[in-house]
Amino acid sequence: MLLAFLRRLQTILLTTGKSRYLKTGTGLHVGKGTRLWAPNSLTIGNGVYLGKQVHIEADASIGDYCLIANRVAIVGRNDHDFRRIGHPVRFSPWIGNPDHPAHGQVRPAVIESDVWIGYGAIIMSGVTIGKGSIIAAGSIVTKNIPEYCIAAGNPAKPIGERFNNQDERLKHERMIRTGRFEFSERGLNHSVIAPGSDET
Question: Which domain of life does this protein belong to (predicted)?
Answer without folding.
Answer: Bacteria
